[in-house]
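Example 9 (inverse folding). The structure is encoded as follows.
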């Protein structure tokens, strides 16, 4: 039997990137052969084994054959006769289909090294169409490698368009869509994930709410980029650039969904889009089984981003209400994340990337000043339940008012 290093480890080393995980393929062996050598079988739908010492994943060389539409709609054939070339052929991208012998020699039958050099994401073979997850994976690699200059090969883009047109993408299960989306959001250029999906038509199928934002105009005074879809991609890109958590990036993606519902006659204004977007964020999150933490921040961002932008004009009462509605006293970190979404929204606009965003520091300061308010035993004496709450509220209002005075002049109106 022969063992080869494959996949991301070979690719990343050739790109000069750090290698996080190593995947191996074993040719000429049966499951029993590996077990006899101490490999431990891990229960997946195809035979994968953990090395007795390194615990790294070793898969038996395999071929796949499509039997039904969609994710998992294929049978896997594995036998000691499956060759390395056959195994590499069922892999998604040429850059992921390079094998390395223990001697260091590379086996690269599908031009992976050429495509690494040329910065091209290209499918290995027509078998690509058999698994729509590959579209998501490719888009995710586009997000990871966009800054290195990687582009999708024309023929791969055509293939993906065919897959979308044939309805293959409808068969993707929500869990898998979210899993790939969350990982893509964590990459350096998540906007390239959504752009790639849009280019092949998959965005309209799996994220129709986002696709609907393209072609919707906004006032050029505030949004020099005009197009709402373009704006949202800039926002996501900015959030990634500042290293914001993936929950912030997701909320950046969905904060303006309501703009797709704006009545034609009031365009390019979007009065009321914040609240209008909330049910859309909820529906998208429900459909893709987005975890609650992501969903809650996304709803807060959709609902409150415009109020946060107007921080300088808010009366202390309104500011206090914002803190209460966003549960900012009990969830200070999430409130800070909300501010990061809003900063990304303000700067994810063509030419406005370096505009100051004093709103964030101001609201943080006001929130902190109000949060530390406590009633001493003395203050509480003689007060009944509801009166205690009112007293705290009055003191918080005074604290917020003091911060407003302190910041007067530091905030651009
Ligand atoms: P990462 O750095 O994210 O681990 P990777 O390329 O190693 O990237 P894995 O998900 O670890 O990706 O998969 C290992 C290899 O298995 C890939 O490089 C690819 O060759 C192959 N592969 C994984 N999933 C698929 C798929 N759905 N279709 C075809 N090939 C796949
Ligand atoms: Mg890997």
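The amino acid assigned to each position is listed next.
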């Amino acid at each position: 039997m022969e063992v080869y290093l494959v996949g991301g480890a070979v690719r990343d080393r050739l790109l000069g990137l750090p290698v996080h995980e190593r995947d191996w393929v074993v040719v000429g062996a049966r499951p029993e052969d590996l077990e006899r050598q101490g490999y431990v079988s891990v229960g997946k739908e195809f035979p994968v084994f953990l090395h007795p010492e390194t615990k790294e994943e070793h898969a038996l060389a395999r071929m796949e054959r499509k039997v039904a539409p969609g994710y998992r709609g294929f049978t896997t054939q594995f036998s000691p006769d499956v060759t390395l070339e056959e195994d590499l052929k069922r892999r998604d991208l040429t850059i992921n289909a390079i094998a390395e012998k223990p001697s260091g020699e590379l086996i690269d039958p599908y031009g992976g090294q050429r495509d690494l050099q040329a910065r091209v994401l290209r499918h290995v073979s027509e078998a690509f169409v058999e698994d729509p997850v590959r579209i998501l994976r490719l888009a995710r690699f586009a997000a990871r490698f966009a800054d290195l200059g990687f582009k999708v090969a024309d023929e791969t883009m055509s293939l993906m368009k065919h897959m979308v047109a044939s309805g293959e993408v409808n068969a993707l299960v929500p869990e898998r869509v979210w899993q790939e989306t969350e990982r893509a959001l964590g990459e350096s250029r998540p906007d390239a994930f959504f752009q790639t999906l849009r280019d092949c038509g998959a965005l309209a199928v799996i994220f129709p709410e986002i696709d609907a934002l393209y072609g919707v105009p906004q006032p050029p005074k505030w949004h020099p980029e005009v197009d709402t879809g373009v704006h949202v991609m800039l926002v996501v890109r900015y959030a990634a650039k500042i290293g914001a958590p993936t929950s912030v990036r997701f909320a950046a993606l969905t904060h303006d969904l309501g703009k797709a519902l704006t009545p034609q006659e009031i365009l390019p204004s979007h009065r009321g889009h914040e609240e209008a977007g909330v049910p859309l964020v909820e529906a998208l999150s429900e459909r893709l089984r987005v975890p609650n933490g992501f969903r809650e921040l996304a709803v807060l961002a959709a609902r409150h981003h415009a109020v946060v932008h107007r921080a300088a004009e808010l009366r202390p009462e309104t500011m206090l209400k914002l803190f209460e509605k966003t549960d900012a006293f009990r969830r200070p970190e999430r409130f800070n994340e909300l501010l990061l979404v809003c900063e990304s929204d303000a700067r994810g606009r063509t030419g406005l990337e370096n505009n100051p965003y004093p709103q964030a520091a101001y609201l943080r300061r006001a929130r902190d000043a109000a949060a530390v308010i406590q009633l001493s035993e003395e203050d509480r004496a003689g007060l009944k339940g509801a009166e205690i709450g009112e007293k705290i509220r009055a003191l918080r209002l005074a604290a917020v008012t003091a911060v407003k005075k302190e910041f007067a002049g530091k905030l651009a109106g």
